[in-house]
Amino acid sequence: MVNQCRGLAEVIGVEPVSKVIGQRMPWRWLPPAITPASLSILKPRSDKLEPPWPDLLIASGRKSVAPARAIRKLSGGKSFCVQIQDPGISPDAFDLVVTPEHDGLSGPNVISTVGSMHGVNAQALAAAREAFAGRVAHLPRPLLAVLLGGDNAVYKMTEAFSRKLAEDLGRIARSGDWGLAVTPSRRTPDHARRAIRDALDGTGADIWDEQGDNPYLGYLAHADAIVVTCDSVNMVSEAAATGKPVHVAHLEGGSAKFRRFHDLMESHGITRAFRGRIEQWNYTPPDETASVAAEVLRRIAIG
Q: Is 34 left (phi over 0), alpha (psi -120 to 50) or beta?
């Protein structure tokens, strides 16, 4: 969520002041529709929200809905309020709502994106390419970047899935056709990490050990193709920003919303399901953040 907010602010051309908040009980458990638009519901340890109110407020996440509404009201409508993700209430409560198309939300002040917004753009990739050039210099080319997620509310990275993915990656690495660079996330189960380390042992693959700077962006910048697990809309969207072939490894589980997202990405020719081999295809990388930024500036100018 932070990446989406910061990514939009950067493309608009402003340096944002980041605020991280939490809500008191019982509001933290209740839906935004019945949460009062008040700053009094915030935890004392939250970053302070106080005047002068911003000209532009970019908020994301369920817990941000009520405070964003409060700031819009307290500013007398002078704070242009952009809410990222479905707020769970009428979009009319904000100046602009930005949601992925697969959410199915519509309205005169709603912008639908193919994937999620993020800060992965040509400039960020160029900087990462230079910063991590030394780390991947020894790897064979072409280079396959592997982005691992893990368990969430609807997906499960099972041991069976991990074994199969590890076997496929090991076979690709040992074919001599591809170098591999693998980065896990905090949600990646230990059994998946072990399976992939064992399968890639002796291949020279670079597997981030979570020490030092995360090479995630560097891997994306240097990759010739990408394998990413299906459990994160953000990871898939960021991978697609490279314009490289994005192979989605589907975990067990899922939801109607995730299925709509993956179906949409495939229908646009951006992603394909990972079937144990690396394919090549072309597409125009979606630039959702730039499109939303332009619309924010347009609406502020006429507002």
A: alpha
